[in-house]
């Protein structure tokens, strides 16, 4: 059953006096970390933990874009079984990469980007994956979300990966007030304590998938409900 929230919450984005403090963020992150520990780790995080290979993190992240985790996991396993390095990928044809990663979304375009990335890494970086944001952003098919995830999860360096879940939840809590993910990243870099940067995405993504959903979030089961301003929420469960 849907429950209507207090209507004024939807207008809080325009109220500069409503803002979540970092003192409360410490409590929020502790509770969310406990909650997501009961859920499956996102596939890119699993690959990072199991392989310790930034290149495989990069490729699996590209595969994961607009694709379900189960599909990404299966596609990554098929591809890495036949080619788990830039050099080995260059031994394949684009069609072979495409067949291996199907049915991830935009699999033909992703196969083209993956093949091109392998060539660039071999030619310019001795087959190594760059660990800085700007160089990663210069690679085909790599946007800010992917680049930040490679830096943070792949290399363990401070970076904030902002996707739709991170953007939505950070604003819903009234921790930030932004309109686009790229803007959210810049604001979070200034406000969020650096100790949370690496894990912020890993924690908020599963939380956003299971409880803090875009429409009608499960506020009655939320571990941080007393700290959340529910900005923009009209109905919840």
From TrEMBL:
Residues 63-210 form the HhH-GPD domain. Keywords: DNA damage, DNA repair, Endonuclease, Glycosidase, Hydrolase, Lyase, Nuclease. The lineage of its organism: unclassified sequences, metagenomes, ecological metagenomes. InterPro entries: DNA_glycosylase (IPR011257), HhH-GPD_domain (IPR003265), HhH_base_excis_C (IPR023170), HhH_motif (IPR000445). This is Endonuclease III. Gene3D superfamilies: Helix-hairpin-Helix base-excision DNA repair enzymes (C-terminal) (1.10.1670.10), Hypothetical protein, domain 2 (1.10.340.30). Belongs to the Nth/MutY family. SMART domains: ENDO3c. GO terms for molecular function: class I DNA-(apurinic or apyrimidinic site) endonuclease activity; DNA binding; oxidized pyrimidine nucleobase lesion DNA N-glycosylase activity.
């Amino acid at each position: 059953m849907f429950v209507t929230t207090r209507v004024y919450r939807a207008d809080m984005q325009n109220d500069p006096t409503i803002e979540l403090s970092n003192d409360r963020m410490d409590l929020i992150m502790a509770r969310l970390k406990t909650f997501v520990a009961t859920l499956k780790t996102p596939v890119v995080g699993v690959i990072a933990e199991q392989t310790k290979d930034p290149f495989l993190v990069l490729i699996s992240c590209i595969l994961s874009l607009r694709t379900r985790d189960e599909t990404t996991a299966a596609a990554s396993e098929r591809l890495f079984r036949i080619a788990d390095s830039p050099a080995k990928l260059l031994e394949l044809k684009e069609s072979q990469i495409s067949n291996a990663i199907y049915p991830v979304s935009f699999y033909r375009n992703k196969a083209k980007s993956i093949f091109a990335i392998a060539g660039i890494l071999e030619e310019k970086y001795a087959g190594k994956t760059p660990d800085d944001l700007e160089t990663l952003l210069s690679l085909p098919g790599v946007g800010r979300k992917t680049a930040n995830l490679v830096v943070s999860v792949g290399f363990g360096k401070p970076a904030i990966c902002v996707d739709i879940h991170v953007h939505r939840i950070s604003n819903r809590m009234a921790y930030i007030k932004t309109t686009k993910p790229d803007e959210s990243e810049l604001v979070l870099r200034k406000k969020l304590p650096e100790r949370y940067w690496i894990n912020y995405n890993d924690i908020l993504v599963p939380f956003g998938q299971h409880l803090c959903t875009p429409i009608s979030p499960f506020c009655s089961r939320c571990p941080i409900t007393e700290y959340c301003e529910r900005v923009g929420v009209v109905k919840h469960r």
